[in-house]
Structures are given as C-alpha cells and as structure tokens.
Specification:
Blueprint (H helix, E strand, L loop, with lengths): L12 H7 L22 E5 L6 E2 L2 E2 L3 H15 L3 E5 L16 H11 L4 E3 L5 H7 L5 E4 L13 H8 L4 E4 L10 H9 L2 E3 L1 H15 L5 E5 L8 H8 L4 E4 L1 H10 L14 H13 L3 E3 L3 E5 L10 E4 L8 E5 L1 H12 L3 E5 L12 H16 L3 E5 L1 H10 L7 E3 L3 H7 L5 H4 L5
Parallel strand pairs: 1-4, 1-7, 4-6, 5-6, 7-8, 9-10, 9-15, 10-11, 15-16, 16-17
Antiparallel strand pairs: 2-3, 12-13, 12-14
Helix pairs in contact: 2-3, 5-6, 9-10, 11-12, 12-13
The structure holds adenosine-5'-diphosphate (ADP) and magnesium ion (MG).
C-alpha cells in the first residue's frame, strides 16, 4: 500500500480549525512525535495481534506487520515496550488455546528482534522491572480479564500500574470502549501509534475534509447491513455508486422487476427515503442500467447473459453490474478527487461475476497512480476483492479494520479514537 501520509492532501486541517493557530502540521490527536524522551520509560502499546492461525501457525501476518513501525520505533528510542492485545474471545477465561504466548515467536520474526512474554499470573511488575531500555514484551491476552470488555476501572488499574505512557496503535479495536482501548487513554498520557495515525490520516482525507468531488462505492449483499453507511454517505458525498445485491433493493423500489435476485423488498420505503435524502443533499445516486444475470449461482453458468435492468426474466438473478454501467462509472470517477469504497459490485467470488468490481477497481487504481484520485477502501470482502483484482497496493489506503472501518463509514465516533484527541 502507498503511504497515506504525505500522499493524502487535506490533513491537519481539523486540528488547525480547532487550535486556530494556523499550524497545519498539528494533528487532532497526539502521536509518537509528541511523546518526548521515552528512554527507560515503560510504554503500554495497544496493538491488534488477533491474527488467524491454523495448526499453530499464523496464516496471515498483516496485523503483526502493522505493529512493526510503532514497536520498533519505541524500542529504538530506548523505551521498554509492553504490548497489550486481545486474542479471540476468552470472555474472562484464561486458556492455552487463546494465550498470546503463541504469538511471541511469529511477532519476533516480523519485528526482527527478541520479544518477551509476560503473564498476568505471578508478578508482571517484577518482569517489567527486569526489562532493559529497548526491550519488547507481549503481555498476556487482555481479555483473560472479564473486566477488559467492560472497561472496568480495576482492570485499567492493573494495566496502568505497569506503564508510564500509553500508545493506541489498534484502529481495528477502536470502536470498542474497553480497558485497553479506551480506559487507559484517560489514565496515562495517551498517543496514537504510527499505524493508527496512518489510518486516521487516510480516513480524514477520505471523508473528514476530502477534496471534492467525492464518490462513494457501496456494494455487498444487503441494504439492511449498511443502512447507516448509506444514510451517512448521502449527506457527505457527491456521487453514491450503489452495486451488489443492495442495488437490487433500490432498483425494485424504483419499480424494476429484479426476478429471482437477492432483494429486500420490505426495504423499498427505506430505499426511497435514502434516494430522497440524496436528492435533498445534491448527491447523485448511480444504479446500474445494465446487469449480468444468470439462472443459477455457479461459475460460468450456461445461462449467463448481460441485459438492460428492465429485461431481467422472472427466473434470473442479477449477479453483477453490466459493462456499459461500469464504463459510465469509470467516467464518474475520472471527474472525482476522492473515492471511498466498501462492498463489491457483484458476487465477485465466482467468475464471471467479478468483472465489474475488477474493472472499476482497476480504474480507481490507475487514477490514484496518476495522482488525480485519493482512494480509500475497507471491508473484509472488499479487501479480498481488491486483492483478487491485484490493485490493493495501488489504492491510497486499504483498511483491514473491519467493524471499526464500517462504524467510521457510518459517521460514528470511535471511543478509542475520541480518547486520543487533544484537549
Ligand atoms: P464487505 O465485507 O466488504 O463489507 P459485504 O460483506 O457487504 O462486503 O458484501 C460482500 C458479499 O456481497 C459477497 O459475498 C458478494 O458475493 C455479495 N454480493 C455482491 N453482489 C451480489 C449480488 N448481486 N447478489 C448476491 N450477492 C452479492
Ligand atoms: Mg463481508
């Protein structure tokens, strides 16, 4: 992925507005640059180490790599780095399967330096006292405390007792007000880590203070899972491109017969309200006017064909946006300066219903490379679709944060981020 920092315009403006001092470099939250001398200090760093594992091996180390910039920078500056993270859902019950001890070696391999392990049993304070400046340790699963997810002050105390300073580097956990993601920020001097900073900068540039015109692509299966996203976006963006199964609900609300397509007919009124709100906000909603349909949901079915949305037969399903619509959408993106994308345009897991998603993703990537578009994307299936298209690295920023990314798309304040804001 490209660096979101310098490449993304419009950053720092929010801080400028608040502080009113014209210092455009001042961010709304404190970062590692604001920490002063950390040599010999114990810094509690909240990371996301919740990596997928199979047969004892980490199958995707993206999150471990995301921890590297902050952990290594603090270690290089002579801090004692104490990593706090959850793993799975132990709900207060310690277990070997959900022990972070199994992440110590994989993390050490990624960081390129030794990593210690500190259990909550025994005397963690003594273990921290033994550490030398620059040493890195992983503390055991924060969720082994039942009070972690309740933001229990007693659990905050347990964590805070071990450190002098707090860094939150886990954007993906910032939509939860837990002891290690929110409570600690009120107890110790708090700062955003480098990955958190990069994510917040990118999101701010995409929807906070974006360069206009702004386009949003919202796709995926159902309107019902993304109502808040749609309602928030119509008030924010100039072009709302709706694809995927949810486009069928909008088409049906407009009187189009969508045949056997995935469609939430009971949400017709909701879809109409969203379209009215878009009109009022001068947001143009783009729905496909040609579509790829088939009689069965299978790879390259014999029944696959492209047709106008008004020609879908009663036994056909819409499974992708059609090529003419994709070309028109590419022209829309060419007029835009900012793009935020969540959800595939079609059932991209199966050929040929990946075509629209791949084509529009390639257009967005090319415009980003040319420097005319800031492109930010997120969502589990969206990340998979962009990887499938081979363009994830060409977007300005691709968020792997999942739930936190969606809540941000809904315009919600994330408690873990809010707690890092400057006074
Ligand atoms: P994300 O995880 O990026 O937020 P979603 O989970 O909302 O995305 O949506 C992804 C799912 O939507 C995929 O499984 C995809 O197959 C499905 N989908 C997209 N278009 C259609 C369609 N026309 N009909 C049925 N399912 C679709
Ligand atoms: Mg999904």
């Amino acid at each position: 992925m490209n660096g979101a920092g310098a490449a993304v315009p419009g950053l720092g403006n929010r801080a400028k507005d608040r502080a009113g001092n014209g210092d455009s470099d001042l961010k709304p939250f404190k970062t590692l640059d604001d920490m002063g001398d950390v040599r010999g200090k114990a810094v509690l760093v909240r990371e996301d180490l919740n990596v997928p594992m199979h047969d004892g091996a980490v199958t995707d180390d993206t999150r471990l790599r995301a921890a590297m910039p902050t952990v290594n920078e603090l270690s290089d500056k002579g801090a004692k780095v104490l990593i706090l993270a959850h793993f799975g859902r132990p709900k207060g019950q310690p277990s070997a399967e959900l022990s972070l001890s199994q992440i110590v070696q994989p993390l050490s391999d990624v960081l390129g330096r030794p990593v210690r392990y500190i259990d909550w049993e025994g005397d963690p304070a003594a273990a921290v006292a033994e550490m030398q400046p620059g040493d890195v340790a992983v503390l055991e699963n924060t969720r082994f405390f039942g009070g972690e997810e309740k933001n229990d002050p007693k659990v905050v105390d347990r964590f805070a007792a071990l450190g002098d300073l707090y860094v939150n580097d886990a954007f993906s956990a910032a939509h939860r007000a837990h002891a290690s993601t929110e409570g600690l920020a009120h107890r110790l001097p708090a700062f955003a880590g480098r990955s958190m900073e990069r994510e917040l900068d990118a999101l701010e540039a995409a929807l906070g203070k974006p360069q206009k015109p702004v386009a949003a692509v919202v796709g995926g299966a159902k309107v019902s899972t993304k109502l808040d996203v749609l309602n928030h976006l119509v008030a924010k963006v100039d072009h709302l491109i709706i694809g995927g199964g949810m486009a069928n609900t909008f088409l049906a609300a407009r009187g189009v017969d969508v045949g056997k397509s995935l469609c939430e007919h009971d949400l017709a009124e909701t879809a109409e309200k969203i379209m009215d709100a878009a009109d009022a906000a001068e947001c143009t909603i783009h729905l496909p006017y040609d579509v790829v349909v088939a009689k069965e949901f299978a790879a390259n079915p014999p029944s696959v064909r492209t047709c106008n949305v008004h020609e879908v037969a009663a036994d056909e399903m819409i499974l992708d946006v059609g090529p003419a619509a994709v070309e028109a959408l590419a022209d829309v993106l060419k007029t835009c300066r900012t793009l935020v994308w969540n959800g595939p345009l079609g059932a991209f897991e199966i050929a040929p219903f990946d075509a629209a998603t791949v084509a529009l993703a390639k257009t967005a990537a090319a415009l980003t490379k040319e420097g005319s578009l800031v492109s930010v994307a997120g969502g589990g299936d969206t990340v998979a679709a962009l990887n499938h298209a081979g363009v994830a690295a060409d977007f300005s920023f691709v968020s792997t944060a999942g739930g936190a990314f969606l809540e941000w798309m809904e315009g919600k304040e994330l408690p873990g981020v809010k707690a890092l804001e400057r006074d």
